[in-house]
């Protein structure tokens, strides 16, 4: 009987901890949602609490095809400076059970008809050891002999290498050089440039994040 009571007490504590964790997560989710709503109003964009339609629209981008249990939320959508923009929180899970890992990031999609002329390409900061192993196993990385600094700093991938080389002109590569130490990732597909912050940003940084993405897109629209 005593063992039963001990097990019951331990089980009760476990359930209480889970309920408390859920309540804390729900509270902070509510605070973040309300902060994003305020930002959307300040900068004249619409707010979508449930943004699964946004993720579905961008499902052919690399980051939106990773892992499982993918969820988009807190989307700000509308038009700024001549671009259609969507900024949203994105979560996906890799692995399962005790080996699962939750990845949370803020993504910004910028669309413009002029971007449709671009080939598909993906750019991210190079991770020395990981990418060295990737090359051994045949991982793609388009390099520029005339710009070794860029090639050493970034991994560049794309379906049409010649077209990607043309799109990543001296001017474009020079612009990207400012992101050598950042976690940002960039992917162009169709008429859209998707910028992945590599982390969840603070709502108060939302406007600056959108303006940064628009600044990058202007490389090919001006």
The radius of gyration computed from the alpha-carbon positions, rounded to a whole number of angstroms, is: 21 Å
What's the total helix number? Answer: 7
- Could you report the average pLDDT, rounded to the nearest whole number? 86
Helix content estimate: 40-55%
Q: Give the ordered list of helices and strands.
A: HEHEEEEHHEHHEEH
Strand order of the largest sheet: 1-2-3-4-8-7-5-6
Question: How much of the residues is beta strand, in percent?
Answer: 25-35%
Compute the separation of the termini in Å.
78 Å
Quaternary state of the chains: single chain
Detail the poorly predicted runs: 129-138
Instruction: Give the strand tally.
Output: 8
Shape assignment: globular
Class per helix and strand makeup:
alpha+beta
Main sheet attributes: strand count, strand direction, barrel closure: 8 strands, antiparallel
Give a description of the structure.
The protein has 222 residues and is an alpha+beta fold. It has a domain of 106 residues. The chain is 40% helix and 27% strand. It contains 7 helices and 8 strands; from the N terminus they run αβαββββααβααββα. An 8-stranded antiparallel beta sheet has the order 1-2-3-4-8-7-5-6. The chain is globular and about 55 Å long. The N and C termini lie far apart (78 Å). About 5% of the residues have low confidence.
